[in-house]
From TrEMBL:
<dbReference type="Pfam" id="PF02129">
    <property type="entry name" value="Peptidase_S15"/>
</dbReference>
<dbReference type="GO" id="GO:0016787">
    <property type="term" value="F:hydrolase activity"/>
</dbReference>
<dbReference type="Pfam" id="PF08530">
    <property type="entry name" value="PepX_C"/>
</dbReference>
<dbReference type="InterPro" id="IPR029058">
    <property type="entry name" value="AB_hydrolase_fold"/>
</dbReference>
<dbReference type="InterPro" id="IPR050585">
    <property type="entry name" value="Xaa-Pro_dipeptidyl-ppase/CocE"/>
</dbReference>
<dbReference type="InterPro" id="IPR008979">
    <property type="entry name" value="Galactose-bd-like_sf"/>
</dbReference>
<feature type="domain" description="Xaa-Pro dipeptidyl-peptidase C-terminal">
    <location>
        <begin position="330"/>
        <end position="565"/>
    </location>
</feature>
<dbReference type="InterPro" id="IPR013736">
    <property type="entry name" value="Xaa-Pro_dipept_C"/>
</dbReference>
<dbReference type="InterPro" id="IPR000383">
    <property type="entry name" value="Xaa-Pro-like_dom"/>
</dbReference>
<protein>
    <submittedName>
        <fullName>CocE/NonD family hydrolase</fullName>
    </submittedName>
</protein>
<keyword id="KW-0378">Hydrolase</keyword>
<dbReference type="InterPro" id="IPR005674">
    <property type="entry name" value="CocE/Ser_esterase"/>
</dbReference>
Length: 577
C-alpha cells in the first residue's frame, strides 16, 4: 500500500504518495511516487518515466543544482524541479520503467521492456494517473534526455489523457545516439553502467540482452568473433570485456554488436514514430550537442500537431538536478492543459539563440532566416579562404598527420586551418558540410571535425562538429547541398593510398563571427579528453579511438578542392561580397 505523508521544501509543504503501484495491461506493476500541494484536490499531472530510479530523482528536493564541470553533477537526475512543479499546482508523478527500480517485469534491450514497447507502458501509466482522484484527468510530461525520449514514445501511442508534451534535451534518432557518423559514442555506456560519475540505470535482475535472447550461443560466438576483428573494439579494454562477458553489460553489448543502422534502431525510433503525434509539442535544446540538435530539428519537422522549436544558448549541458526551461514549460502547459489564454500560440514557432551576437532570432520555420550556402576552401599554410586553390598538388602539397593508437601514446594529433579575422559580423545558421579529399594508408579511420569561433584574445568556443567513420562514407538520396546524409547500412573499407572524397555532415548551429574573430577548423581521428568544450561534458562523452596507426594526407589543391560548405544568412552573404 502506498505511503502518504508530507514533507517541507523551504516554506512549502508537499504531500507525497510514496510507492504507488501502477498496473500495466499484461499484469506487471510499475512503481511511482506522486508529489502535490498540501491541499488534497484534483490537479493536472506531469509524468516522468525512466529507468534511472525514482529515489534518485527525489534529490531535486535536497540537492542544489550542479553545472558541469562540477564533480557532483550526475547525469541521471533529470525528472525536473519537484518543488517548482508542486508550486505551480501540478502533481509531479515519477515512475520506474519495468525491469528497473521498484517496478516489476523484465527489461530487454533498446527501449524494449520484456518484449513490450515502452510507449505502451507509458500509455497505461498515463491513463492510470489520469483516473486517480488526485488528478483532474489532464496529463503532461516532464524530464530531459531519457525522460525526453519517453515523452515522444508515449505521445506516439496517443493516450487520450496526454494533452501536450514539453521535451528538453531528448535523444531521438537511436542510431545517432550511439554512433555519430558511424563512430561509436561511449556515453550510452555511462547511462547504463554508471561510469564516469553517473548513477546509471537502476535495473533489477530482470534485465536481458536482446541479442542473447534472439540468437543461439553459436551465432553469438560467431558474431562476437567478427566484431572483435575491428581493431578499434579489440584495442579498447572495456569493449573487449563487454564482448567476453555480455551478461554483465547486456544493453551496452547490444549496442556494440549493432554498429550499422537498420531495424534494430528504427523499430521504436522516436523519429519514425513522430508522424503519429498530433498533440501540441514543444522541443527545446541548448547548442553544443550537435547530433542531438540534428535529431531535435528532424523531430520538429516530422510532427503533425501544434509545435514549437526552441534552440537555446551554449553551454550544452543542463544542471543536475535538472531545473532549466521550467518557465517556458509552464507557459506551454498552462495554455494547453489548464486552458489559460496566455498568448503562447501567438508567438513564432521557432526561436533560435545566435551565439556571437547573442541575439534571439524568431520565425515560423527552420532555419529562421534565408540562407545561401557558400564554400570556404582549405588552402596552404593552414588557411581558410573564400577563394579556391589554383595550384596543382605538385605545388600545393597535401597537409597531413599521423596518429599512433592511444595504446602507445597519449597525444591526440590535430591539424587545423583558420580564416583571416572577419572584418564584419558574419552570421551562419543551419547545417553544413565538409568535403575533404584524403589519402589514408589503412582500411579505416575516424574523421572528426570541430569548428571554433576564436576571439582576438585567443579565447574560443565550439560552434559545431562533424563525425564520419571513413568506411561509412557512402551518401544517400537525402543528401542536398550543405546537408549530406549517410545511410550507415554497410561498411566499405578504404583502399589504402587512394585519394577519396569524404563528406562530413556538420551538425546544425547558429553563430555570428564578430569583427576580429576567426573561424578555426580542426581535424583529427581521435579527440582530446579535456579542452574548452569537453570539460563541460560528462566524463565518458567521447568517441571510440582508432585502434591502428594511421597516416592521413589531406589534399586541397586545384584538382581536390577540400572545402567547407556553410549556411551564411543572406545578410551576411551580401556583406561579405
Amino acid at each position: 500500500m502506498a505511503d502518504f505523508h508530507t514533507i517541507k521544501a523551504g516554506e512549502q509543504t508537499i504531500a507525497v504518495r510514496k510507492d504507488l503501484r501502477v498496473p500495466m495491461r499484461d499484469g506487471v506493476e510499475l512503481a511511482a511516487d506522486a508529489y502535490q500541494g498540501a491541499v488534497d484536490k484534483p490537479r493536472p499531472a506531469l509524468v516522468a518515466l525512466s529507468p534511472y530510479g525514482k529515489e534518485l530523482q527525489a534529490l531535486a528536493l535536497t540537492m542544489p543544482p550542479q553545472r558541469r564541470p562540477s564533480p557532483m553533477w550526475d547525469g541521471c537526475i533529470e525528472a525536473g524541479d519537484i518543488a517548482r512543479v508542486v508550486q505551480e499546482d501540478y502533481v509531479h508523478v515519477i515512475g520506474d520503467l519495468r525491469g528497473s527500480g521498484a517496478s516489476e517485469g523484465e527489461h530487454i534491450g533498446n527501449y524494449n521492456a520484456g518484449g513490450v514497447s515502452l510507449g505502451q507502458d507509458a500509455y497505461d501509466f498515463i491513463e492510470w494517473v489520469a483516473a486517480q482522484p488526485w488528478c483532474d484527468g489532464n496529463v503532461g510530461m516532464i524530464g530531459i534526455s531519457y525522460f525526453g525520449s519517453m515523452q515522444v514514445l508515449a505521445a506516439a501511442e496517443r493516450p487520450p489523457s496526454l494533452k501536450a508534451i514539453f521535451v528538453s534535451g531528448g535523444h531521438y534518432d537511436f542510431y545517432e545516439t550511439t554512433y555519430h557518423g558511424g563512430i561509436m559514442w561511449l556515453m550510452p555506456r555511462a547511462a547504463r553502467e554508471g561510469r564516469g560519475g553517473d548513477s546509471g540505470w537502476a535495473f533489477t535482475d530482470g534485465v536481458k540482452s536482446r541479442m542473447l535472447e534472439t540468437y543461439s550461443p553459436e551465432e553469438i560466438k560467431a558474431r562476437v568473433a567478427k566484431r572483435l576483428q575491428d581493431p578499434d573494439v579489440a584495442a579498447w579494454p572495456n569493449l573487449f570485456h563487454v564482448m567476453n562477458y555480455p551478461k554483465n553489460h547486456e544493453a551496452w553489448f547490444d549496442i556494440v554488436m549493432n554498429e550499422l543502422d537498420g531495424e534494430w534502431y528504427k523499430e521504436r525510433n522516436p523519429i519514425t514514430l513522430a508522424p503519429n503525434i498530433d498533440i501540441p509539442v514543444w522541443v527545446q535544446l541548448d547548442q553544443g550537442r550537435g547530433w542531438t540538435l540534428d535529431g531535435t530539428i528532424e523531430l520538429f519537422e516530422s510532427l503533425k500537431g501544434p509545435k514549437k522549436l526552441d534552440i537555446g544558448p551554449y553551454p550544452p549541458m543542463q544542471s543536475r538536478p535538472f531545473i532549466e526551461e521550467h518557465e517556458k514549460m509552464f507557459h506551454w502547459y498552462d495554455y494547453w492543459i489548464k486552458g489559460i489564454d496566455n498568448g503562447v500560440m501567438d508567438e513564432p514557432a521557432v526561436s533560435v539563440f545566435v551565439e556571437g551576437s547573442r541575439e534571439t532570432v524568431t520565425a515560423d520555420q527552420w532555419p529562421p532566416k534565408d540562407i545561401e550556402y557558400k564554400p570556404l576552401y582549405l588552402r596552404p599554410r593552414r588557411k581558410l579562404s573564400f577563394e579556391p586553390e589554383l595550384m596543382g598538388a605538385e605545388h600545393a602539397a597535401p597537409d597531413g598527420f599521423y596518429q599512433a593508437p592511444l595504446t602507445v601514446t597519449d597525444k591526440v594529433e590535430i591539424i587545423d586551418w583558420s580564416t583571416e579575422p572577419f572584418e564584419q559580423a558574419t552570421e551562419m545558421i543551419g547545417t553544413g558540410a565538409a568535403h575533404l579529399f584524403i589519402e589514408i594508408d589503412q582500411p579505416d579511420t575516424n574523421l572528426i571535425m570541430r569548428i571554433w569561433d576564436q576571439a582576438p584574445n585567443g579565447k574560443r568556443q565550439l560552434i559545431t562538429t562533424g563525425y564520419l567513420k571513413a568506411s561509412h562514407r557512402e551518401l544517400d538520396e537525402r543528401t542536398t547541398e550543405g546537408s549530406p546524409r549517410h545511410p550507415h547500412n554497410r561498411v566499405v573499407p578504404v583502399e589504402p593510398g587512394v585519394i577519396e572524397e569524404y563528406v562530413l555532415r556538420l551538425y546544425p548551429f547558429a553563430n555570428t563571427f564578430l569583427p576580429g574573430h576567426r573561424m578555426v577548423v580542426e581535424l583529427s581521428n581521435n579527440e582530446p579528453m579535456a579542452d574548452e568544450h569537453n570539460a563541460l561534458l560528462p566524463p565518458d562523452a567521447f568517441h571510440l579511438p582508432v585502434g591502428r596507426p594511421v597516416t592521413h594526407k589531406v589534399y586541397r589543391d586545384a584538382a581536390h578542392q577540400s572545402r567547407l560548405v556553410l549556411p551564411f544568412t543572406t545578410t551576411s552573404v551580401a556583406t561579405e561580397q
